[in-house]
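Shipment paperwork, digital attachment
Item: protein structure file
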Amino acid sequence: MAAMTIDPNLTLQINTKSQPQQRLVAEEIDGLIRVYKDGHVERPQIVPCVPPSLAPELGVTCGDTIIDTYTNIWARVYVPNANQSKHHLPLLVLAPENPLPAAYDDGVKAVNWIAHQVFVKSPQWWTSKCNASNIFLGGDSAGANIAYIVALRLRPSEIKGLVLIQPFFGGEKRTNSEKFMVQPPRSALTVAAADAYWRLSLPAGADRDHPWCNPTVKGAAAGMRDLGMLVCVSEMDILKDRNLEFCGSLKASGCRRVEAVVFKDVGHAFQILNKSPVSEIRVHELICHIKSFISRELMYSLLFEIQDLDKPSS
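Attachment content:
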């Protein structure tokens, strides 16, 4: 399986040399972001920018490619070296984190751009290795939210399925896990931080029952009912009940292939932020579930196409 991550150009100003004491703070998430009432934003560079290079023993080739020069959307593409057969790989598109609705717009652009690259037989190094008819959208936390909303904007035939890892949703009514789940110090996600993220992300005047935040308000769209979805939930995450309610809403709306997997004894973003032995085991389980889900959905799609061919023409 090949994978692509998208990184739209941030519209935020980053300036840590200013005099914050001269400004009034509107929102702050400790150690992550500080937004002032005059519109100035400070974000410390927690994750370093790294070049597209990987250790050879990983067996993966990666490279950067431009999607849209006007908005500076670019993607990093990862392709396993082991695929020496003539079979093209399915493509997993990983959604970014960025202010809304720009990230949704950029996600749709990325999917359309992929289809165009294959249609025009683009000479880019990765296009000959991927099957653009087998596209899966995926992401974790805010990226999973973006993957779901982007899927709503696409035609059902454009993607094969969704991989949603701890999808970042919310709502005005608190769930039990939001109210009672005890979080360790410096937790990756607290209720207060989640509320601040939504205040920063949603349109002015919108509350947490806005469809971008709470997709259960309106239920699943009709086009999603035949789409396979894998929803990965962390047992110690404040979003646990929210994620499970989301799965229940999908099934109640007629979505027939929704798989929810709960990962025991780990919290939000464990696959990135936690290096404990338990987390390493859960990361391996997560990868296995994703591989199994994609293989199963591809087989389902193939069987569905065969059944269509067997139908007598009218």
